[in-house]
Amino acid sequence: MGAEGVLSSCVLEWDIPLPVHAGGSVERATLSCLLTLGELRPEGSLDRADLNLTLHYGGAAYESGVAGGDFDDALDRIQKQLPDGAELATLTSADA
């Protein structure tokens, strides 16, 4: 953690269960997340924040590539790679 209380100079990894809607059913998938936080600049911002997401679904891995820290953009990149009819669950659709 930097002097200003900003988390920096580290790598965070975690997995999230993320349902996928396909063919009228809900299938299990796992979203693996990798967030790399760079060094703290003198003005207090990070020199980089790189986010990479990988969805493990149906025996395949769908990667976002480095998304510069934007979670929504990374998920959108993955959604575009999924087979026709497969859709990532959102908070509202996961509750349905």
Which spans of ≥5 residues are poorly predicted at pLDDT below 50?
92-96
Question: How many individual domains?
Answer: 1
Main sheet properties = 4 strands, antiparallel
Terminal CA distance: 39 Å
Query: Total strand count, please?
Result: 7
Order of helices and strands: EEEEEEHEH
**Percent strand:** 35-45%
Shape: elongated
| Strand order in the largest sheet | 1-4-5-6
InterPro entries: DUF6304 (IPR046271)
Structure explained in plain terms:
This protein is of the alpha+beta class and 96 residues long. It has one domain (10-95). The protein has two helices and seven strands; from the N terminus they run ββββββαβα. The strands form two sheets. A four-stranded antiparallel β-sheet has the order 1-4-5-6, with helices on one face. Strands 3-2-7 form a three-stranded antiparallel β-sheet, with no helix packed on it. A hairpin with a 2-residue loop joins β2 (20-22) and β3 (25-27). The longest helix has 11 residues, at 71-81. It is elongated and about 50 Å long. Residues 92-96 have low confidence and may be disordered. It holds the Pfam family DUF6304.
Briefly characterize the structure.
This protein has helices at residues 71-81, 91-95, and strands spanning 10-17, 20-22, 25-27, 30-37, 49-57, 60-66, 87-88. With 96 residues, the chain is α+β, with helices and mostly antiparallel strands. It has one domain (10-95).
